[in-house]
């Protein structure tokens, strides 16, 4: 899988920032490393890198089906960037709020019958 990802990065001519986001949001069955998320958050202080990072996050967040980990890890990375990256990340999130809101309806049931898209957050009390 790593070779395939490396080849795709090369063929599509992804920047270093985009490659790091793709690695952090991969389909591998483990979460993104804190050191990789730190590297990405540092890159958000560069205007060009910030745009590349956010565009790749929005792209990965729109994946569906068997790529549910792209969505989950994009949200994990986005949460980290909001807390540790440039303040402009928050501005991009406000502008892309629709992308996040569409995930309310996300669902994916894996081969074992487990709903991987089920929201485990508590519902607000009215």
TrEMBL record:
Pfam families: ENTH. One of its GO terms (cellular component) is endosome. Residues 9-126 form the ENTH domain. SMART domains: ENTH. GO terms for biological process: endocytosis. One of its GO terms (molecular function) is clathrin binding. This is ENTH domain-containing protein. It comes from Chrysemys picta bellii (Western painted turtle).
